[in-house]
Specification:
heterodimer; A: 114 residues; mainly beta; B: 115 residues; four-stranded antiparallel beta sheet
């Protein structure tokens, strides 16, 4: 069974600083990988996804993520954080083959300070 | 183009009552997923449905919980005889097909509080 680990529960960064959120997955084959963002009181919105091909994936709102098979990682990055990026971020893994059953990590809450 | 609609947004029930959560998927989507989010935890898969069929209910508690997605109308998640531990945010997501690459479109959730 697939699983996802997000080792950082909370992260605080200054506005304008760079950001990296960590995600490690466990899956026996090449996974489908996703990053979602959740603002308070809202549902989840897809930031980006990786299926195959180029291991550096560009998403919305200036985010990108890099798939590293050797490290079983799919870290999310942004070069310059804006105050509006404060939210909770979830990494997720989906199994290839069959229907789409996605497993989510426990999330990382991002706080942005002026 | 309406997204996934969930209602109610907030639901308060006393212990022992029934809770009914509704989800209308995006237009054109026939695949519905229910997730539960507990405080400080990620989303936990509960059930996956297509129209009139339960495809995977491996995440559903064996008792008191049921889900349906009728031919007409919204998907319903039903919790009978609620207990305090059922207090959580319940999210519905939909997709147009079962292709693994199709992203899930989430509703804003129903926050259930059991008193």
């Amino acid at each position: 069974a697939q699983s996802v680990t997000q080792p950082d529960i909370h992260i605080t960064v200054s506005e304008g600083a760079s950001l990296e959120l960590r995600c490690n997955y466990s899956y026996g084959a090449t996974p489908y990988l996703f990053w979602y963002v959740q603002s308070p009181g809202q549902g989840l919105q897809l930031l980006l996804k990786y299926f195959s091909g180029d291991t550096l994936v560009q998403g919305i709102k200036g985010f990108e993520a890099e798939f590293k098979r050797s490290q079983s990682s799919f870290n999310l990055r942004k070069p310059s954080v804006h105050w509006s990026d404060a939210a909770e971020y979830f990494c997720a893994v989906g199994a290839q083959g069959g229907y789409q059953k996605v497993t989510f990590g426990t999330g990382t809450k991002l706080q942005v300070i002026p | 183009n309406a997204g996934v609609m969930q209602n109610p947004r907030h639901l308060v029930r006393r212990r022992g009552q029934e809770a009914r959560l509704r989800c209308s998927p995006m237009k054109g989507h026939s695949h519905v997923y229910w997730y539960r989010q507990l405080p400080e935890e990620g989303l936990k898969f509960m059930v996956y449905l297509q129209k009139e069929n339960i495809i995977d209910e491996s995440g559903m508690p064996k008792e008191r919980f049921s889900a349906e997605f009728p031919k007409e109308g919204p998907s319903i998640l039903r919790i009978q005889q609620v207990v305090r531990g059922d207090s959580a945010a319940y999210f519905c997501a939909s997709s147009p097909d079962s292709y693994q690459g199709s992203p899930l479109h989430f509703g804003n959730g129903t926050r259930l509080t059991v008193t």
